[in-house]
Write a structure and sequence with these properties.
The protein has 595 residues and is an alpha+beta fold. The chain has 13 helices and 29 strands. The longest helix is centred in the middle third of the chain and has 27 residues, at 228-254.
Amino acid sequence: MRSAVSLFVLLLASALSAAEKPNIIVFLTDDQGWGDLSSNGNTNLATPNIDSIGKNGATLDNFYVCAVCAPTRAEFLTGRYHPRTGVSGVSQGEGRINQDEILMPEVFKAAGYATGAFGKWHNGTQSPYHPNDRGFDEFYGFTSGHWGAYFSPPLDHNKKKIKGNGYVIDDFTDHAIEFIQSNRDEPFFCYLPYNTPHSPMIIDDQWFGKFANTDPEMKFHDEKREDINMTRAALAMVENIDWNVGRILETLEELELADTTIVLFFSDNGPNSYRWNGGMKGRKGAIDEGGLRSPFVIQWPGHIEPGAHVTPVTSGLDLLPTLTELAGIDLKSTVSAIEEKRSVGPHPIDGRSFAELLTGENTDWPDRMLFNTWRNKLSIRTSRFRLDNDGALFDIENDRGQTKNVADQFPELAAELREAAFTFQAECESYHDEFANRPYAVGYDRSTTLPARDGTQQGPSITRSSKAPNNSFFENWKSTDDSIMFPVEIGEGGTFQALVYYTCRGGDIGATIRLTEISGDSTEAKVTQAFDPPFYDNSKERMENSHYIVKDFIPLELGSIDLRAGQRVLQLSAPEIVGEEAIDVHSIELIRTDS
């Protein structure tokens, strides 16, 4: 009888514990600088909803991320410095988090949370790198580094190709609200990685009208470097973000979930143009203060004191240990159990929980060295100083703009930080050597898409539609010597139905398109249908000479191809071109047919 009662008590305690777990909502914006909030002193715009999170909770005054998108996401999701996770860049596979890394959604899912992500992923496209393979029950968005169209563009919903509905940020928020409503009775982890104000600077008149003819009162400290129209568009996009943040906050109030939900907001790097940013040096892509300092606000009613300011240096690395501690999840044991289940080695966390800083239980925050690296450059932030890539030392507490080198005043500290930088950079280089040139995974799921972004053009004429591989397609395919190459790793060999998504003008019908596994099987088909759609309407693009060109594509069935397991190279070629060009190529899809 006693054992039965004890079991009942344990089950009851477990149920209560699950019921008390806080929900988590994470907003992560793209290319929004620290200065792009009215709560940080910018009078050019109004962000009342984002500001309210800080008023109802805490503002982290010295929160740092990476210089660009994918590395920040990797550090947030793993709690580890991005070079250690396999992430070295933003395109052509550089953003993929290694398969053996344990990600935040996996941890929360193991703790009984429903998990959903709505927006820009940027940490891998093909299985097993896709968000649905990394712990997210629900995914609605895109997996690339940026997207070329913001009104009803092609998107990915749980690995299925779909078309969006309206402006992307509004659409992502709609789906997040549906997810919250559907999971209101269980703890949920909701990730909203918005893709604005990243270019293209596409924003509806409803938002841009306020700024269309204004001369912003607050400008970048070197005014000649500022593109005012870019600033206007960014401000409009941020106000749209703020409106959508407000929609989520309203949903929590309506569902009576506000008091049991942790809500936080930050950005992935500095601003994507020279605009007001508190006088800091640098912007997106820089490893100075202006490229790395991010806005950060967080609320949890009853647990975080309203209006609190946290001054110690914190980082995106810290969010995994912090959020799990706030949620009462034993991070170490949970990660160990996942690693054991997946038969992967230990991955030490670099981040440090700042939960006690938020709750006020402990304000004694030990000093630390926070490393930032990008494109073979490195800087270090401590509680007071920053060492830049040239070895200069700046007193950030008194010199946010990094105007005076104080290395001569603190020679021992400067020498210590330079040595630490040298050691860390050498480690990063070793990781790059280990993870560079990874092939693209094929055959780990029923269907695999290889977008043009991940291919390499060969030959005299074929080119990309955009200077940036992300969201580009291949065009100007005029020679039979042109081809597109994809290095791949076939997880399990077998037979696959091959499709190429293409466009073709009426006068160019008749080209033969062939897919070959080099030194292996091949399959081909003739283009018998013209498809020459117009480009997406870019009338809401606020920047002249935009390089974002988007159109629809249709599939051409190439037939079946046998692919052998292991590292291979796939080649898309056109052994016969009838008209002026073969086809424009968006992607290849490989669908397993033998299982």
